[in-house]
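Hey, weird one. I pasted the Carbon-nitrogen family hydrolase sequence into the form twice and got a warning about non-standard characters only the second time. First submission, copied straight from the form history:
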Amino acid sequence: MRASLIQIEVDEGESVEARRRRAAALVRAQAGADLVVLPELWTTGAFAYEEFGREAEPLEGPTCEAMAEAASDAGVWLHAGSIPERDPDGPLYNTSLVFSPSGELAAAYRKIHRFGFDKGEAVLMGAGRDLVTVRLPEAVLGLGTCYDLRFPELFRGLVDAGAELLVLPAGWPERRRAHWTLLARARAVENQAFMLACGTAGMHAGVPQAGHSVVVDPWGEVLAEAGPGEEVLTVDLDPAKAAATREQFPALKDRVLGLEPPRHRGGTRGPA
């Protein structure tokens, strides 16, 4: 299985429509791949909060149309990163879109964990509620987005739903790049799954982006890693390695679920 991660640069001087056309051309250039991945909020920039409302669009909006055509032209499964989605009956959402090689919208995932600590995305967008997987001919994808990477229980849920490849588009800042690589490898190892983490390059509203998109195998080995700039990272991987790893080292079978919360036993508890 060949996967291509498009680490697109978000240039504040480039219009959303121009970047949409450029992203579509980059997708078409990956004809021959099985899976192509774009990063989070590449139309606006993940930290361009003031652009979310202005550029929000419905699922069947211009980005969906452009990416559906690009997926069909290239004949690839396309994880088109995420867009600010405008729900006519609700809030904005940070929503990922996945298209089949025929251009059909196969899945949409609304980001569950919103970043910002009571500001930014955390107050401007609603929280998704549903785990989402997508069955490809070669493997089952499990979907997460950026800040989700810090919450291992989400990925455990995806694995329980059959995921073998974890796909994570992101707009991860350079100042926390060490966490990006560490957590991507951790999620791969603990879930015995491939991790395909696709970030952005450039600046998002003055916030330098980490780049360094990475593909990690179920043993935690980094199969490929991008640099800091715009780049297409392409890697050939064997999806069957997830099942083989789980058979060779069946740690997932030893999970203990439903543990009771701790209780204090004996003695007295001193002042905090």
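That's the output from the first submission. The warning seems to come from a hidden character in my clipboard, not from the data itself. The chain has one domain: 2-253.
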